[in-house]
Amino acid sequence: MKLRRQLAAAAATAAVLMLVPSAVATASPDKHPKVPADSLRALGAQQKLGIGTAVDDARLGSDRAYTDLVANQFSVVTAENAMKWESVEPARGSYDWAAADRLVSFAGQHGQQVRGHTLLWHNQLPSWLTTGVDDGTVTKGQLREILRKHVTDEVTHFRGRIWQWDVANEVFANSWDPNPLPDGLNGDDFWIRNLGEGVVADVFRWAHQADPKALLFYNDYNISGQDGTNAKFRAVHDFVAKLRAQGVPIDGVGEQGHLDTQYGFDAQRFQADLQSYGDLGLKVAVTEADVRTFVNNSTEQVPTSQPAAFAQPFEFSEMLKGCQLVDQCISFTAWGVYDGDSWIPGTFAGTGYGLLYDVDKAPKPAYYALQQDLRLGARPQKH
Ligand code: G3I
Question: Separation of 307 CA from ligand 1 center, angstroms?
Fold first, then answer.
């Protein structure tokens, strides 16, 4: 197809040009009139690809440079934390939508679409819920009803304003998890352990009832190309195929895309796996892209190895190209705007430099690599 041919022919040129910022500005079909024509969002719009970022609500509005980058460079936003259960219902029965509402309203003002993140996850649950399950004051029957209410209330609150929901997140076992179930679900996952495997299909059904137009995604990491044996990909693929066959309202699969240069990356397999999900009739998205590497310290985040400094933008670019080459891939989201506001240094000590902008919010080689990929993908054919 057209885009494939253009990318293949231009790949060598891209490798040479990817560090060079270009002043060429093209006409933008982006719905929002004020975005720069050579921004990621404007270039992505030329090929109908959403370009997203996770947003830290504490910085939105209070940090001008940050806010401008979110508005000007991205056409899709994901709440990094503000839509998670502990954020929206810190005390039982008492909702706090303020931070998430601010983001959704910001997106409306800036012509952006929203990825809702996330409804069913073992992490960042409110302590009233986990404590209640631990001490037995919340029974299994009550837990199921509490979850149904949570999904219904949250999706209803944002009804009509969310493009894609990450309905279920990270319920499959990794190679190092001790208790995988026969179909690859993680037997130790909070929700699977307490409510059984059927809970995954149920949350999709509840979400669909609350907002029939939202696209409903299963979201996870290491499910396209990164897992050595590809066992996690295979498990997710077969599970979502089964859901589809059963008529469960699932629309897509989100590959998070958290890479680390020390492990290498099989870009062909990444693309092939995304395509396999697409071949099931599902949409796909890269939902949380970042590429970490070893750095001098968490404040400056200067890569300690020269080859790794080249691998970082290369792997970012390979992920984007994998998405561009799969017709069903509808958005590509980085997990944060700049290195000074990334989850990486706090979680993987000694690593960082994972995003598109550095600790001073200056664009990095990864930014220019993506910009170049998007330009090449949108280029009209010469012959
Ligand atoms: O809100 C509290 C604040 O009150 C407190 O003062 C502060 C002190 O540490 O902590 C704040 O909570 C932190 C929260 O982010 C909000 O900033 C938590 O400690 C921190 O653990 C939490 O980290 C988030 C992490 O998910 C939790 O697992 C990261 O920001 C967020 O980027 C990360 O995102 C996940 C995706 O949702 C799912 N996929 C993996 C991805 C990376 O882990």
Answer: 30
